[in-house]
Specification:
Rossmann fold; 14% strand
């Protein structure tokens, strides 16, 4: 099958490479010439495990190519995926200008019976608007569909090759048949529904997961008041089959490119349709206030950060990515500097990306122990595997005493840390 993928961001590159690996002829399209040149040379402009290898493999097989030309990408394509960004507008709703621009630019080159698939995260009703734009600029017959993505940064290649499910939002029989055939090599869990339902399912999934994080953080707050340990509470509730042990992450709140944006968008969408008393508004509010609230607590714990050197482990928003969008470090580090601390920081992948987004006073190191040297406080922000087996005896020798270990991911046994002379502070324990 001949496929065009408009947008070569995180979702676009992964989707293009995976469909090419399955044997399809795929053309990735973007107006960013530098990005297209890099991808054509087999270089991914961001870090994602296993992606560069599959990109180079599919380029070598001639199943995958990249271009800045709409005519080249669209004119032969049976299926056209739109995977451009949908940033939040000033009112909080999704800004669809890039989706609409892609629809306008692809329309003149569509072949007969082409299927235009919106994979970007968009509110219900977007398919009709895209179809109207295209209809004004072409005389060929075409259909639209929604196939939302559910990729996790850090495991996107695996998620695409082995999805939990694929949602096909379409009502036209031919469109459903083609898209089902396209996705069957990946999974037999293909659910067909209305486009509006598929789009709501994407927002619902991300908002529910964000709600779980917010919920367990609220429980953690109570645990710190009464002596309970939130990790033990998770065990206590998780063996209930209705609840489960998965996806409980007490900490500094949710971040990244999707959860904060999608929660804000569904909250704004709720307001726009008259649902003003929305749970989603409160979830967003609680998450926004999470880090400032905890930083005040940590400030009291260490006797004030003024004059102290603080080491920060983890600058990305999660492990196995260099994406820093809504990363805890973007709030924690400026707060520390504003309160008189000197900050030393490290990350396995995100240092170069973070430099341009953090205050110039930050000093960066490649090694966690070098980062910790001369520090009074050690912040463990992100659970990279590099930081999963820290030598606290060595750290105690490198750091000023008394030393504090602030474990925002609850990765360590408090007693293990304390026996080396550290004051330990987790979340909800």
């Amino acid at each position: 099958m001949k496929i065009a993928c408009i947008g070569t961001g995180f979702v676009g590159v992964v989707t293009s490479a995976v469909f090419a690996k399955l044997g399809h002829q795929v053309v990735g399209l973007d107006i960013d010439e530098a990005k297209i040149k890099s991808l054509s040379q087999g270089k991914v402009p961001f870090f994602e495990p296993d992606l560069e290898e599959i990109l180079q493999e599919t380029l070598a097989s001639n199943n995958l190519s990249f271009t800045t030309s709409y005519q080249e990408a669209i004119s032969q394509a049976e299926v056209v995926f739109i995977m451009v960004g949908t940033p939040s507008a000033p009112d909080g709703q999704a800004d669809l200008k890039y989706v609409f621009a892609a629809a306008k630019d692809l329309a003149p080159y569509l072949q007969e019976k082409a299927i235009v698939v919106i994979k970007s995260t968009v509110p219900p009703g977007t398919n009709q608007k895209v179809a109207q734009i295209i209809q004004k600029l072409t005389s060929v017959q075409f259909t639209t569909a929604s196939v939302p993505e559910f990729l996790k940064e850090g495991s996107a290649v695996h998620d695409t090759l082995h999805p939990d499910r694929v949602l096909i939002g379409a009502t036209d029989p031919y469109t459903i048949e083609v898209l089902t055939k396209l996705h069957q090599p990946l999974t037999n869990k293909i659910l067909v529904m209305k486009p509006e339902s598929a789009q709501m399912a994407k927002y619902s999934a991300n908002t529910y997961l964000a709600q779980r994080i917010t919920f367990i953080n609220q429980i953690a707050n109570l645990c710190e008041k009464n002596g309970a340990d939130v990790q033990e509470v998770i065990q206590g509730i998780g063996h209930d089959k209705r609840i489960g042990l998965h996806y409980w992450y007490p900490g500094l709140g949710y971040g990244g490119s999707c959860f904060p944006k999608d929660v804000k968008e569904i909250a704004a969408y709720s307001k726009s349709v008259g649902e003003t008393d929305s749970l989603f508004i409160k979830i967003d509010e609680l998450n926004e206030n999470r880090i400032p609230r905890l930083m005040e607590k940590y400030n009291q714990l260490v006797g004030g950060f003024t004059g102290k050197t603080v080491a920060v482990l983890g600058l990305s928003f999660k492990p196995n990515t260099n994406d820093i969008r809504e990363a805890p470090a973007l709030k924690v580090i400026p707060w520390l500097i504003d309160h008189g601390a000197q900050v030393r920081a490290t990350d396995p992948q995100a240092i170069e990306v973070a430099r341009s987004h953090l205050p110039s006073q930050v000093t960066y190191f490649n090694d966690p122990y070098e980062t910790a040297k001369t520090s009074h406080v050690l912040f463990h922000l992100i659970e990279w595997s590099d930081y999963s087996h820290l030598d606290f005896k060595r750290l105690a020798q490198l750091m000023h005493q008394p030393a504090y270990f602030i474990d925002t991911r609850n990765q360590y046994d408090p007693q293990l840390v304390q026996q080396h002379g550290f004051t330990y502070q987790g979340v909800g324990r």
